[in-house]
Each structure stands twice: as structure tokens, then as C-alpha cells.
Amino acid sequence: MSDKDLDIEFEEAYEKASNMTEALPQDVMLRIYAYYKQATQGTVHADRMGSVDLRNAFKTNAWMQISHLSSDEAKRLYIETINSLTK
């Protein structure tokens, strides 16, 4: 798959995710968040962490756990996750 195809599929998955109406388990939402952030912004850095409230701490932790993934790997996992939820 070319980078252009991957980007198109990623955008399509983002649209699907944006239009989802069902509530998802928190762990799934955190995984989706982390894949999206890794795909679009790269590895999390301490200066990007923002506020230190509990919600953001969980989000940052989820992102840090997948920081070893490349942007393309994160995009693929994001696409797979969204597609598995919207079947």
C-alpha cells in the first residue's frame, strides 16, 4: 500500500470514528486516541503533555505505551481498530 493510499484509508477511518454514536469501552477509546496521536503527531514528549489531570494522564500513558510505533504503523492499527468496530 502506498503512503497516499494509507493516508486516504486513515482519513476514511477517522470519518467513520467521528460518526460513531455508540459508547465504547474506555480502554478501546484510549487505544484509538493513542494510535491517532502517534499517527498524526509522532512520539509524545513531556512538553506536549498539557495539564496533569487524571483523564489526560491516562491519555498520555496510552500514547506513551505505543511510542515505539512509526506513524504508518499507528495509522494501520488505527484503521484496523476502527474497521473492526464498524463492521
From TrEMBL:
Keyword Endoplasmic reticulum listed? The answer is no
Entry-linked SUPFAM superfamilies:
Acyl-CoA binding protein
UniProt source species: Flavobacterium qiangtangense
Q: Name one Pfam family in it.
A: ACBP
Q: Does the keyword Transmembrane helix apply?
A: no
Question: What is the protein named?
Answer: Acyl-CoA-binding protein
Q: Where is the ACB domain?
A: 6-87
UniProt cross-references to Gene3D superfamilies, sorted A to Z = 1.20.80.10
